[in-house]
Amino acid sequence: MKLGNQTLTTHFLLLGFVFQGKVQVLFSMLISIMFLAILIGNSLIVVITTIDPVLHVPMYYFLKNLAFTEICYSLSIVPKMLAVLLVDRNTIPFTACALQLSCVILFVTCECFLLGVMAYDRQVAICHPLHYATMMSRDHCFRMALGSWVSGVPVALGFTTWLFLLPFCGSNTVDDFFCDVSPVLKLVCADTALFELMVFIVTVIIVMIPFFLV
């Protein structure tokens, strides 16, 4: 659909990987095996740390949250990637692309915050062993884990909304196997300097959080 000299984008095409024949099948099998390994391995971590009372300590509690984040992150990317590789379903609706991007940002941000919390937990255990039980109580751990998840929401919603409100024109081919910030941003036909600057600043802040906590 066209509006003036601009095109209203309703879907994107995921370029993905360019493979042919047996190479594509082998690569798809490799991705599937790795995907299953990630799901099974992290699911085992979640289950074991939940059912074993001995592992009901802060370190394994945060590890369980981190494993669950890895599961969610993989589920937000790999199924569509396999659809592109196996059955050439490389079309993704505009809203689905926005949803995938927001999920990726959310889980990556949450993972960074959880790593920071885990670093803080180990720092308290080493530097303040006598006060560890008080400083890392069950309620305190729950609040920190919840905060890690909730803190990623405004980052994900903010950047996704901002990006997809920008005008898209010309090619609708995403040069990647999933909707990520950089390849989608290349399709925008407007000045993106401020957006890129804000992405850089927020990324630096999120990555530096583990260092600030310790």
UniProtKB/TrEMBL annotation:
It is a multi-pass membrane protein. It comes from the Eukaryota. Signal peptide: none annotated. Residues 41-214 form the G-protein coupled receptors family 1 profile domain. GO terms for cellular component: plasma membrane. The keyword Iron does not apply. Its main location: membrane. The chain crosses the membrane at residues 30-55, 67-87, 99-120, 141-165, 193-213. The keyword Membrane applies. It is found in: Cell membrane. Keywords: Cell membrane, G-protein coupled receptor, Membrane, Olfaction, Receptor, Sensory transduction, Transducer, Transmembrane, Transmembrane helix. GO terms for molecular function: G protein-coupled receptor activity; olfactory receptor activity. InterPro entries: GPCR_Rhodpsn, GPCR_Rhodpsn_7TM, Olfact_rcpt, Olfactory_GPCR. This is O10A5 protein. It comes from Atlantisia rogersi (Inaccessible Island rail). The lineage of its organism: Eukaryota, Metazoa, Chordata, Craniata, Vertebrata. The gene is Or10a5.
